[in-house]
């Protein structure tokens, strides 16, 4: 029976590979090889996990091309997910969503510091007793963690309370988390220890290897997380003085042995790099074009990030080599990703994240392990809230009803619901980094950066739609405008006769569907986040944007409330979020109010 199930799953996967990627012989061979190996896959012990999460690592700026060990050990011996996105382009909200499988509007951890975010908000929301390591321990796993967990996890509050859920832990603590040469770690329930004078990446490498040794010596399956600070900007604790003006976030500091590398490498000069014409919306559209001094600094910043990543590359090499020396590698999933992306110069932006552009929300995701196709490129749309459900499925743990995500198709025997959308949301101010961050009003923060958006990829469409708290809108068709320079949202300055069409329908018809989809997703919970079209069409006839664009639904979508904000707030407050109710069809013939 197991062989028959594997063959059935194999047929589905090969068919999917052909549909998504065309008939690629190498891809199909890789799927065949991995699927057949599953028949001899060990089943006596649940699989182990090694999870590596970097801080602020870009995908769109090509940083992964400069990490040969990670590519060789994880990507090339596993699957890369080309369409993997975060739910919030900011450290703490993104990480809490990852560890809970919930959208930020459901965690209500939306910032890096109180009152809207950080470790204290995580605790206040009850997640210290209800997140992934707790669930894994309940399922029989030993869990270990070293590195950055959350922002505002400090030398003063680390014991109020201690983080739950780990057999062993050694956390980076604020205000020293991002100080490459002056880090502070706190092990288990011990007092914090300063490592001033040592490079934080060398420190975490020792700690990670120690926890891996502990895990390998145990009798239970293990989940080891390693979360280095690199390539995040360097933050000197002495610079944290004026919270209103922000803090100085300078280029990351690489290990001495890597400082000579990449001296001639520059930020990719894509079409959206320091463009001649302004782009984007809200405060981004007001940015001045960068002069040569600022451009040169951006290149230096980029080089420093690549140099800092070399320590992470060596860290992964050390851990995977140790696994190879053990008898556990063949039963271990290795997952590599980052909490959010990063931009440097795109749309005239100084270094940073917090935006909804591709550079900030699309991140690396490589997975290697039992039954995972080798050297395969997966095009399914995936997001960080899918990672906890994925780990559950791989570990054989039943899916939780409060997950807003769904399992990622990692192995050929995958069965489950896929989605074509990602919900991206942000509250508060934009964060500006680097020596020239003061170009926005003398502060490292940009105002009115609250927005709700959806990223949608399906057959024949590749779209990003956002509504800002200023009630400005953006719509990009990335199939024709991959660098998001031309906002298609209707304006008085553009002749309607010149407007493009989406799947054969007018912009207004497409926008009515996108806006309604966003109306559902901006406050969705559980399965409604996975299958939002079912909320609108309970009869189950609509599954994709293409389905919804059928002209028989025009009146239904034209009468929907529109997404808007009542005001710009620094956190998630339902009163500021505008309309929440929507109309729903009843067997495609009529509709009534639904809350």
Structure in words:
Residues 1-16 form the signal peptide. Keywords: Glycoprotein, Hydrolase, Signal. GO terms for molecular function: arylsulfatase activity; glycosaminoglycan binding; N-acetylglucosamine-6-sulfatase activity. Belongs to the sulfatase family. This is Arylsulfatase. The protein is α/β, with parallel strands linked by helices and 595 residues long. It has three domains: 1-40; 51-409, Alkaline Phosphatase, subunit A, CATH 3.40.720.10; 450-594, no CATH class. 28% of the residues lie in helices and 16% in strands. It has helices at 2-21, 25-37, 68-75, 91-100, 104-107, 118-124, 132-138, 200-217, 292-325, 358-361, 387-395, 507-521, 527-530, 532-536, 545-548, 554-558; strands spanning 48-54, 79-85, 142-147, 168-172, 184-187, 193-194, 222-227, 332-338, 365-368, 376-383, 421-426, 430-431, 445-446, 451-458, 461-468, 473-477, 582-586, 590-594. The strands form four sheets. The protein has a ten-stranded mixed sheet with strand order 6-5-4-3-7-1-8-9-2-10, with helices on both faces. A four-stranded antiparallel sheet has the order 11-14-15-16, covered by helices on one side. The chain has a two-stranded antiparallel ribbon with strand order 12-13. Strand 17 (582-586) and strand 18 (590-594) form a beta hairpin. The longest helix is centred in the middle third of the chain and has 34 residues, at 292-325. Residues 1-23, 25-42 and 587-595 have low confidence and may be disordered.
């Amino acid at each position: 029976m197991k062989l028959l199930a594997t063959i059935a799953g194999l047929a589905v996967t090969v068919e999917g590979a052909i549909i998504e990627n065309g008939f690629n012989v190498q891809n199909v061979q890789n799927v065949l090889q991995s699927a057949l190996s599953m028949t001899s896959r060990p089943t006596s012990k649940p699989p182990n996990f090694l999870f590596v999460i970097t801080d602020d690592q870009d995908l769109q700026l090509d940083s992964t091309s400069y990490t040969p060990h990670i590519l060789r050990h994880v990507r090339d011996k596993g699957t890369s997910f080309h369409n993997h996105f975060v739910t919030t382009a900011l450290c703490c909200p993104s990480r809490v969503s990852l560890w809970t499988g919930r959208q930020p509007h459901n965690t209500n951890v939306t910032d890096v510091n109180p009152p809207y975010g950080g470790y204290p908000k995580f605790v206040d929301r009850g997640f210290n007793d209800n997140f992934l390591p707790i669930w894994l321990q309940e399922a029989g796993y030993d869990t270990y963690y070293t590195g950055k967990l959350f922002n505002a996890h400090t030398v003063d509050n680390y014991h109020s309370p201690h983080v739950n859920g780990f057999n062993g832990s050694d956390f980076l603590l604020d205000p020293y988390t991002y100080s490459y040469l002056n880090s502070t770690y706190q092990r288990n329930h011990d007092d914090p220890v300063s490592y001033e004078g040592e490079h934080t990446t060398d420190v975490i490498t020792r700690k990670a290897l120690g926890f891996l040794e502990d895990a390998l010596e145990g009798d239970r399956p293990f989940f080891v997380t390693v979360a280095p600070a690199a390539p995040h900007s360097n933050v000197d604790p002495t610079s944290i003085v004026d919270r209103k003006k922000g803090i100085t976030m300078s280029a990351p500091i690489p290990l001495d042995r890597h400082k000579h590398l990449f001296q001639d490498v520059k930020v990719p000069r894509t079409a959206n790099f320091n463009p001649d014409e302004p782009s984007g919306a809200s405060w981004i559209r007001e940015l001045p074009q960068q002069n040569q001094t600022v451009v040169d600094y951006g290149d230096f910043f980029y080089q420093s990030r690549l140099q800092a990543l070399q320590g992470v590359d060596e860290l992964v090499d050390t851990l995977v080599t140790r696994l190879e020396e053990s008898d556990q590698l063949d039963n271990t999933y290795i997952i590599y990703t980052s909490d959010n992306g990063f931009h440097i110069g795109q749309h005239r932006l100084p270094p940073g994240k917090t935006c909804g552009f591709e550079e900030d929300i699309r991140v690396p995701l490589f997975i290697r392990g039992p039954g995972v196709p080798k050297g395969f490129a997966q095009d399914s749309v995936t997001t960080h809230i899918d990672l906890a459900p994925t780990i559950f499925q791989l570990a054989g743990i039943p899916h939780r009803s409060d997950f807003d995500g769904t399992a990622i198709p990692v192995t050929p025997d995958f069965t489950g619901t896929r989605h074509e959308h990602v919900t991206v949301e942000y509250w508060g101010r934009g964060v500006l980094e680097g020596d020239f961050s003061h170009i926005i009003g003398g502060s490292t923060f940009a105002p009115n950066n609250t927005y709700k958006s959806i990223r949608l990829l399906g057959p024949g469409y590749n779209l990003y739609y956002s509504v800002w708290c200023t009630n400005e809108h953006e719509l990009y068709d990335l199939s024709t405008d991959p660098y998001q320079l031309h906002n298609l949202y209707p304006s008085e300055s553009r002749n309607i006769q010149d407007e493009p069409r989406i799947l054969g329908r007018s912009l207004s018809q497409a926008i009515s569907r996108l806006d309604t989809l966003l109306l559902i997703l901006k406050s969705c919970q559980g399965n409604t986040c996975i299958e939002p079209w079912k909320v609108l069409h309970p009869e189950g006839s609509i599954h994709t944007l293409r389905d919804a664009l059928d002209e028989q639904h025009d009146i239904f979508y034209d009468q929907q409330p529109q997404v808007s904000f009542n005001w710009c707030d620094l956190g998630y407050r339902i009163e500021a979020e505008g309309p929440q109710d929507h109309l729903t069809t009843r067997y495609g013939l009529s509709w009534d109010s639904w809350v």
